[in-house]
């Protein structure tokens, strides 16, 4: 009888403990922050945030892009100082720089961004209000591309922190966490290197990665560290040490779109965290597509970072000339509503439901800049593409897609009507591109659980286990000399 009572009480205590654990995981206060320079950095955060809200968590999201409309369950904070700096810094002509054969950002521009944006953010009134609010958080999720400034907030609020690495081919935050990132097979994301490089390519690759690493080190050590301590106090630890203590990294990438990588247990590839099945199109778009019958349509979009009002007139006319010769309907994301010489088979729109269009049965090809999220979406929906890279990781993404056989890469500075027309005909009429795109789609979709669901699980795992320090590798604390065992080599007498 006593044994039955004891078993009964153990069962009740077990249920109460389980309920208490579930209650903790369902009621967490989570602070997310990105200071990334383009709007695309917001998308993975919003998707994860909406998923976490659906599981009962409270989400606060700091970013430099005021929302067009509120997102249910997410409190967005857009400090005016941060918004002002990012808006002015990103007032760039990416396309013009590419056409002139120039780098859109000089090394000095890259160098200054980290500490200047941090200073504008931390001195902002809304940021100070948040810091002095007395709010308590259970977890911070920050952008792996620019985490250093946000690490100061993690120290202030005394919380474990995770990264969402929003640039799929960028390995800086992955390396800092202790995962191996061999430069012999890790291409610099802003060049068209692959993971199978010649010796000349490897020399160039090491040069670019060394320069990027050096600039990042100098900027953080000499400036960002001082800015953070000036605003949050001298007790803030070394930011590089904090970077290596990250609990978990959600990597926005997938080996079917980027490259296979040797990741440690605290790294999750969650490519296509934002990908969704297509929804029915608005009537005006569906009617326009149906004008072309079974011939189908082409989608053209250069993303959020390329402003089409900067298109030189000759380039606009080039596209008009080519589109007018096609038997397909063309949907073109353009920042203006009208164009006097627009062909009848072309429709302009300031915004297009890109995923719904990519999933439409009548789509024939996608003309894109090659941004990571667009590449993931096109593979998810199995659409062949023409890429015209402009900036940052576009070059590496485009080269990988071409290597995988579902893309044709064009250099926008060398574009002619003949080259564009030939590429469009080839990508649509040669079945190998569509077949390769569908094959990649199968690889991307063949997972035991959706990327979002898996990301939600591991986020709550970090919450449940108070930072999940048992997942961290000791390699993150080793110097280069220790990591490569150089200190074990004795000089021969």
UniProtKB/TrEMBL annotation:
Gene Ontology terms, MF aspect: glucuronosyltransferase activity
UniProt xrefs under CDD domains: GT1_Gtf-like (cd03784)
The keyword Transit peptide is assigned to this record: no
Listed Pfam families: UDPGT
Leader sequence segment: 1-27
InterPro entries the UniProt entry points to: UDP-glycosyltransferase (IPR050271), UDP_glucos_trans (IPR002213), UDP_glycos_trans_CS (IPR035595)
Enzyme class: transferase
Enzyme Commission number, as recorded: 2.4.1.17
UniProt KW rRNA-binding keyword: no
Subcellular location: Membrane
Catalysed reactions, semicolon-separated: glucuronate acceptor + UDP-alpha-D-glucuronate = acceptor beta-D-glucuronoside + UDP + H(+)
Keywords in alphabetical order: Glycosyltransferase, Signal, Transferase
Membrane topology: Single-pass membrane protein
Gene Ontology CC terms: membrane
PROSITE patterns: UDPGT
Family statement drawn from the similarity comment of this UniProt entry: Belongs to the UDP-glycosyltransferase family.
Protein name: UDP-glucuronosyltransferase
Organism expressing this protein natively: Pediculus humanus subsp. corporis
């Amino acid at each position: 009888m006593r044994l039955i009572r004891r078993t009964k009480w153990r069962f009740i205590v077990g249920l109460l403990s389980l309920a208490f654990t579930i209650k903790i995981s369902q009621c967490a206060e989570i602070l997310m922050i990105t200071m990334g320079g383009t709007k695309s950095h917001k998308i993975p955060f919003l998707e994860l945030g909406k998923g976490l809200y659906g599981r009962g968590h409270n989400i606060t999201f700091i970013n430099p892009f005021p929302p067009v409309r509120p997102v249910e369950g997410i409190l967005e904070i857009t400090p005016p100082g941060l918004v002002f700096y990012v808006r002015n810094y990103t007032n760039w002509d990416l396309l013009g720089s590419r056409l002139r054969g120039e780098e859109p950002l000089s090394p000095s521009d890259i160098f200054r961004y980290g500490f200047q944006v941090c200073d504008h953010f931390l001195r902002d009134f809304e940021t100070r209000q948040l810091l002095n609010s007395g709010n308590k958080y259970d977890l911070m999720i920050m952008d792996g591309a620019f985490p250093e400034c946000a690490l100061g907030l993690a120290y202030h609020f005394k919380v474990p922190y995770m990264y969402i690495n929003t640039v799929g081919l960028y390995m800086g935050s992955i390396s800092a966490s202790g995962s191996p990132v061999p430069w012999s097979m890790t291409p610099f994301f802003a060049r068209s290197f692959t993971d199978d490089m010649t010796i000349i390519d490897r020399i160039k690759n090491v040069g670019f990665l060394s320069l990027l690493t050096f600039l990042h080190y100098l900027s953080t050590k000499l400036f960002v560290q001082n800015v953070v301590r000036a605003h949050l106090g001298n007790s803030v630890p070394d930011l590089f040490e904090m970077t290596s203590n990250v609990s978990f990294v959600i990597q926005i990438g997938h080996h079917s779109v980027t490259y296979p990588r040797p990741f440690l247990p605290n790294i999750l590839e969650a490519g296509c965290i934002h990908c969704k099945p297509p929804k029915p199109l608005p009537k005006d778009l569906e009617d326009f597509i149906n004008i072309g019958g079974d011939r189908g349509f082409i989608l053209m979009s250069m993303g959020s970072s390329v402003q089409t009002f900067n298109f030189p007139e000759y380039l606009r006319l080039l596209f008009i000339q080519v589109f007018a010769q096609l038997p397909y309907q063309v949907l073109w994301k353009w920042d203006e509503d009208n164009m006097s010489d627009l062909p009848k088979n072309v429709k302009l729109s300031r915004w297009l439901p890109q995923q719904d269009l990519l999933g439409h049965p009548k789509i024939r090809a996608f003309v894109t800049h090659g941004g990571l999220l667009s590449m993931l979406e096109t593979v998810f929906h199995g659409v062949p593409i023409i890429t015209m890279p402009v900036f940052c990781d576009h070059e590496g993404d485009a080269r990988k897609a071409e290597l995988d056989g579902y893309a044709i890469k064009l250099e926008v500075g060398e574009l002619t009507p003949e080259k564009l027309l030939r590429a469009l005909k080839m990508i649509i009429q040669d079945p190998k591109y569509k077949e390769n795109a569908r094959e990649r789609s199968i690889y991307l979709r063949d997972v035991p659980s959706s990327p979002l669901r898996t990301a939600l699980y591991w986020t709550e795992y970090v919450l449940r286990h108070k930072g999940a320090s048992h997942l961290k590798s000791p390699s993150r604390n080793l110097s280069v000399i220790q990591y490569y065992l150089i200190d074990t080599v004795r000089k021969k007498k």
